[in-house]
Amino acid sequence: xxxxxxxxxxxxxxxxxxxxxxxxxxxxxxxxxxxxxxxxxxxxxxxxxxxxxxxxxxxxxxxxxxxxxxxxxxxxxxxxxxxxxxxxxxxxxxxxxxxxxxxxxxxxxxxxxxxxxxxxxxxxxxxxxxxxxxxxxxxxxxxxxxxxxxxxxxxxxxxxxxxxxxxxxxxxxxxxxxxxxxxxxxxxxxxxxxxxxxxxxxxxxxxxxxxxxxxxxxxxxxxxxxxxxxxxxxxxxxxxxx
Length: 242
Prior knowledge:
Elements: H1 3-16, H2 19-22, H3 24-38, E1 45-49, H4 55-62, E2 66-71, H5 74-86, E3 94-98, E4 112-118, H6 127-136, E5 138-149, H7 154-164, H8 166-172, H9 194-202, E6 206-214, H10 222-225, E7 233-240
Parallel strand pairs: 1-2, 1-4, 2-3, 4-5
Antiparallel strand pairs: 5-7, 6-7
Protein backbone atom coordinates (compact mmCIF):
# COMPACT_ATOMS: atom_id res chain seq x y z
CA UNK A 1 0.00 0.00 0.00
CA UNK A 2 1.43 3.37 -0.97
CA UNK A 3 2.07 6.30 1.33
CA UNK A 4 -0.55 8.26 -0.63
CA UNK A 5 -3.14 5.65 0.31
CA UNK A 6 -2.13 5.91 3.96
CA UNK A 7 -2.52 9.69 3.77
CA UNK A 8 -5.98 9.24 2.21
CA UNK A 9 -7.13 7.04 5.09
CA UNK A 10 -5.57 9.38 7.65
CA UNK A 11 -7.84 12.06 6.25
CA UNK A 12 -10.88 9.78 6.52
CA UNK A 13 -10.18 8.56 10.05
CA UNK A 14 -12.27 11.04 12.04
CA UNK A 15 -15.46 10.33 10.09
CA UNK A 16 -14.94 6.66 9.19
CA UNK A 17 -17.02 5.24 12.06
CA UNK A 18 -19.96 7.34 10.93
CA UNK A 19 -20.22 5.23 7.79
CA UNK A 20 -21.65 2.39 9.85
CA UNK A 21 -24.66 4.60 10.58
CA UNK A 22 -24.86 6.26 7.18
CA UNK A 23 -24.25 3.38 4.79
CA UNK A 24 -26.24 0.18 4.78
CA UNK A 25 -23.45 -1.85 3.17
CA UNK A 26 -21.09 -1.02 6.04
CA UNK A 27 -23.65 -2.08 8.65
CA UNK A 28 -24.49 -5.21 6.66
CA UNK A 29 -20.85 -6.23 6.44
CA UNK A 30 -20.24 -5.59 10.13
CA UNK A 31 -23.30 -7.53 11.26
CA UNK A 32 -22.49 -10.45 8.96
CA UNK A 33 -18.95 -10.77 10.28
CA UNK A 34 -20.09 -10.41 13.89
CA UNK A 35 -22.65 -13.16 13.35
CA UNK A 36 -20.08 -15.51 11.80
CA UNK A 37 -17.45 -14.85 14.46
CA UNK A 38 -20.07 -15.11 17.18
CA UNK A 39 -20.47 -18.78 16.29
CA UNK A 40 -16.86 -19.47 17.35
CA UNK A 41 -15.84 -20.40 20.86
CA UNK A 42 -15.37 -17.54 23.28
CA UNK A 43 -11.94 -16.28 24.25
CA UNK A 44 -10.08 -17.06 21.03
CA UNK A 45 -7.55 -14.57 19.72
CA UNK A 46 -8.33 -12.63 16.56
CA UNK A 47 -6.36 -10.42 14.19
CA UNK A 48 -8.04 -7.63 12.25
CA UNK A 49 -5.72 -6.78 9.34
CA UNK A 50 -6.71 -3.26 8.32
CA UNK A 51 -8.73 -2.52 11.43
CA UNK A 52 -9.58 1.04 10.41
CA UNK A 53 -11.26 3.08 13.13
CA UNK A 54 -11.74 0.01 15.31
CA UNK A 55 -15.50 -0.54 15.04
CA UNK A 56 -15.22 -4.29 14.48
CA UNK A 57 -12.40 -4.60 17.01
CA UNK A 58 -14.48 -2.91 19.67
CA UNK A 59 -17.51 -5.14 19.08
CA UNK A 60 -15.34 -8.27 19.16
CA UNK A 61 -13.50 -7.23 22.30
CA UNK A 62 -16.79 -6.48 24.07
CA UNK A 63 -18.00 -9.95 23.01
CA UNK A 64 -15.11 -11.57 24.89
CA UNK A 65 -12.47 -12.08 22.20
CA UNK A 66 -8.83 -11.06 22.53
CA UNK A 67 -8.10 -8.78 19.59
CA UNK A 68 -5.12 -7.38 17.69
CA UNK A 69 -5.70 -4.61 15.19
CA UNK A 70 -3.17 -3.49 12.61
CA UNK A 71 -3.49 -0.74 10.03
CA UNK A 72 -1.25 1.39 7.84
CA UNK A 73 -2.98 4.62 8.86
CA UNK A 74 -1.83 6.28 12.07
CA UNK A 75 -5.04 8.29 12.05
CA UNK A 76 -7.18 5.16 11.91
CA UNK A 77 -5.20 3.55 14.74
CA UNK A 78 -5.72 6.65 16.88
CA UNK A 79 -9.48 6.43 16.21
CA UNK A 80 -9.40 2.70 17.04
CA UNK A 81 -7.68 3.38 20.35
CA UNK A 82 -10.32 5.98 21.22
CA UNK A 83 -13.11 3.55 20.31
CA UNK A 84 -11.70 0.74 22.45
CA UNK A 85 -11.01 2.98 25.41
CA UNK A 86 -14.42 4.66 25.21
CA UNK A 87 -16.03 1.21 25.27
CA UNK A 88 -14.10 0.37 28.45
CA UNK A 89 -12.12 -2.50 26.92
CA UNK A 90 -9.24 -3.40 29.30
CA UNK A 91 -5.82 -2.64 27.85
CA UNK A 92 -4.71 -6.26 28.24
CA UNK A 93 -7.50 -7.41 25.88
CA UNK A 94 -6.30 -5.60 22.76
CA UNK A 95 -3.19 -4.53 20.85
CA UNK A 96 -2.74 -2.07 18.01
CA UNK A 97 0.15 -1.91 15.55
CA UNK A 98 0.95 0.15 12.46
CA UNK A 99 1.60 -1.87 9.32
CA UNK A 100 4.69 -1.11 7.30
CA UNK A 101 4.25 0.02 3.70
CA UNK A 102 5.24 -3.43 2.40
CA UNK A 103 2.29 -4.95 4.27
CA UNK A 104 4.37 -6.59 6.99
CA UNK A 105 3.85 -6.25 10.74
CA UNK A 106 5.24 -7.85 13.89
CA UNK A 107 1.84 -9.36 14.66
CA UNK A 108 2.01 -11.41 11.47
CA UNK A 109 4.84 -13.43 13.01
CA UNK A 110 2.38 -14.77 15.59
CA UNK A 111 -0.46 -17.28 15.34
CA UNK A 112 -4.17 -16.50 15.60
CA UNK A 113 -7.36 -18.53 15.83
CA UNK A 114 -8.97 -16.19 13.35
CA UNK A 115 -7.89 -13.47 10.93
CA UNK A 116 -10.26 -10.87 9.48
CA UNK A 117 -9.55 -8.39 6.69
CA UNK A 118 -12.40 -6.23 5.43
CA UNK A 119 -12.05 -3.83 2.52
CA UNK A 120 -8.25 -3.96 2.51
CA UNK A 121 -6.89 -6.23 -0.22
CA UNK A 122 -8.14 -3.98 -2.99
CA UNK A 123 -5.76 -1.19 -1.91
CA UNK A 124 -2.61 -3.29 -1.69
CA UNK A 125 0.20 -3.39 -4.24
CA UNK A 126 0.59 -7.16 -3.78
CA UNK A 127 -2.56 -8.72 -2.26
CA UNK A 128 -1.30 -12.24 -3.00
CA UNK A 129 1.74 -11.76 -0.77
CA UNK A 130 -0.43 -10.40 2.03
CA UNK A 131 -2.93 -13.25 1.70
CA UNK A 132 -0.04 -15.66 2.13
CA UNK A 133 1.06 -13.84 5.30
CA UNK A 134 -2.49 -13.92 6.68
CA UNK A 135 -2.82 -17.63 5.89
CA UNK A 136 0.47 -18.39 7.61
CA UNK A 137 -0.65 -16.47 10.70
CA UNK A 138 -3.48 -18.97 11.29
CA UNK A 139 -3.38 -21.92 13.65
CA UNK A 140 -4.52 -25.30 12.22
CA UNK A 141 -8.30 -25.21 11.78
CA UNK A 142 -8.23 -21.43 12.10
CA UNK A 143 -10.50 -19.22 10.01
CA UNK A 144 -9.98 -16.32 7.64
CA UNK A 145 -12.76 -13.86 6.76
CA UNK A 146 -12.20 -11.63 3.74
CA UNK A 147 -14.36 -8.84 2.29
CA UNK A 148 -13.46 -7.45 -1.15
CA UNK A 149 -15.02 -5.69 -4.17
CA UNK A 150 -16.85 -8.08 -6.48
CA UNK A 151 -15.41 -7.83 -9.97
CA UNK A 152 -18.38 -9.66 -11.52
CA UNK A 153 -20.70 -6.85 -10.41
CA UNK A 154 -22.20 -4.73 -13.18
CA UNK A 155 -22.35 -1.86 -10.71
CA UNK A 156 -18.60 -2.08 -10.14
CA UNK A 157 -18.06 -1.88 -13.88
CA UNK A 158 -20.26 1.20 -14.00
CA UNK A 159 -18.25 2.77 -11.16
CA UNK A 160 -15.07 2.37 -13.15
CA UNK A 161 -16.73 3.81 -16.26
CA UNK A 162 -17.72 6.93 -14.32
CA UNK A 163 -14.24 7.22 -12.84
CA UNK A 164 -12.60 7.02 -16.27
CA UNK A 165 -14.95 9.60 -17.80
CA UNK A 166 -15.11 12.34 -15.16
CA UNK A 167 -15.65 15.28 -17.54
CA UNK A 168 -18.81 13.79 -19.02
CA UNK A 169 -20.41 13.11 -15.64
CA UNK A 170 -19.23 16.44 -14.24
CA UNK A 171 -21.24 18.20 -16.94
CA UNK A 172 -24.26 16.21 -15.84
CA UNK A 173 -23.56 16.88 -12.18
CA UNK A 174 -23.73 13.17 -11.40
CA UNK A 175 -21.76 10.83 -9.13
CA UNK A 176 -19.35 13.34 -7.58
CA UNK A 177 -18.16 10.73 -5.08
CA UNK A 178 -16.86 8.52 -7.91
CA UNK A 179 -14.68 11.12 -9.59
CA UNK A 180 -12.15 13.69 -8.49
CA UNK A 181 -9.10 13.48 -6.22
CA UNK A 182 -11.04 12.33 -3.14
CA UNK A 183 -12.66 9.35 -4.81
CA UNK A 184 -11.57 6.05 -3.28
CA UNK A 185 -11.23 4.74 -6.83
CA UNK A 186 -8.00 6.71 -7.09
CA UNK A 187 -6.50 4.28 -4.59
CA UNK A 188 -8.33 1.01 -5.31
CA UNK A 189 -6.03 -1.25 -7.33
CA UNK A 190 -7.88 -4.60 -7.44
CA UNK A 191 -11.23 -6.32 -7.54
CA UNK A 192 -11.78 -10.04 -7.05
CA UNK A 193 -13.91 -13.09 -7.73
CA UNK A 194 -14.63 -15.99 -5.40
CA UNK A 195 -12.90 -18.38 -7.79
CA UNK A 196 -9.70 -16.32 -7.60
CA UNK A 197 -9.71 -16.38 -3.80
CA UNK A 198 -10.43 -20.12 -3.79
CA UNK A 199 -7.40 -20.72 -5.99
CA UNK A 200 -5.07 -18.38 -4.10
CA UNK A 201 -5.98 -19.53 -0.62
CA UNK A 202 -6.06 -23.16 -1.67
CA UNK A 203 -2.29 -22.88 -2.15
CA UNK A 204 -1.91 -22.48 1.60
CA UNK A 205 -4.43 -25.08 2.70
CA UNK A 206 -7.55 -22.95 3.10
CA UNK A 207 -10.99 -24.07 1.98
CA UNK A 208 -14.03 -21.83 1.58
CA UNK A 209 -16.83 -22.48 4.06
CA UNK A 210 -19.42 -19.85 3.09
CA UNK A 211 -19.88 -16.57 1.27
CA UNK A 212 -22.27 -13.63 1.24
CA UNK A 213 -22.83 -11.20 -1.63
CA UNK A 214 -24.18 -7.78 -0.72
CA UNK A 215 -24.10 -4.01 -1.28
CA UNK A 216 -26.13 -2.15 -3.84
CA UNK A 217 -28.28 0.97 -4.17
CA UNK A 218 -31.17 1.12 -1.67
CA UNK A 219 -33.66 0.95 -4.53
CA UNK A 220 -32.55 -2.60 -5.37
CA UNK A 221 -34.59 -5.48 -4.00
CA UNK A 222 -32.69 -7.70 -1.58
CA UNK A 223 -32.76 -10.57 -4.06
CA UNK A 224 -31.04 -8.41 -6.69
CA UNK A 225 -28.58 -6.89 -4.27
CA UNK A 226 -27.39 -10.35 -3.21
CA UNK A 227 -26.85 -11.51 -6.80
CA UNK A 228 -23.20 -12.00 -7.87
CA UNK A 229 -24.02 -10.01 -11.02
CA UNK A 230 -25.19 -6.99 -8.98
CA UNK A 231 -23.67 -7.10 -5.49
CA UNK A 232 -20.71 -4.76 -5.21
CA UNK A 233 -19.00 -6.66 -2.41
CA UNK A 234 -18.71 -10.20 -1.13
CA UNK A 235 -17.59 -11.64 2.17
CA UNK A 236 -16.12 -15.14 2.37
CA UNK A 237 -14.97 -17.34 5.21
CA UNK A 238 -12.18 -19.88 4.76
CA UNK A 239 -10.89 -22.57 7.12
CA UNK A 240 -7.31 -23.78 7.32
CA UNK A 241 -7.72 -27.48 6.61
CA UNK A 242 -4.09 -28.42 6.06
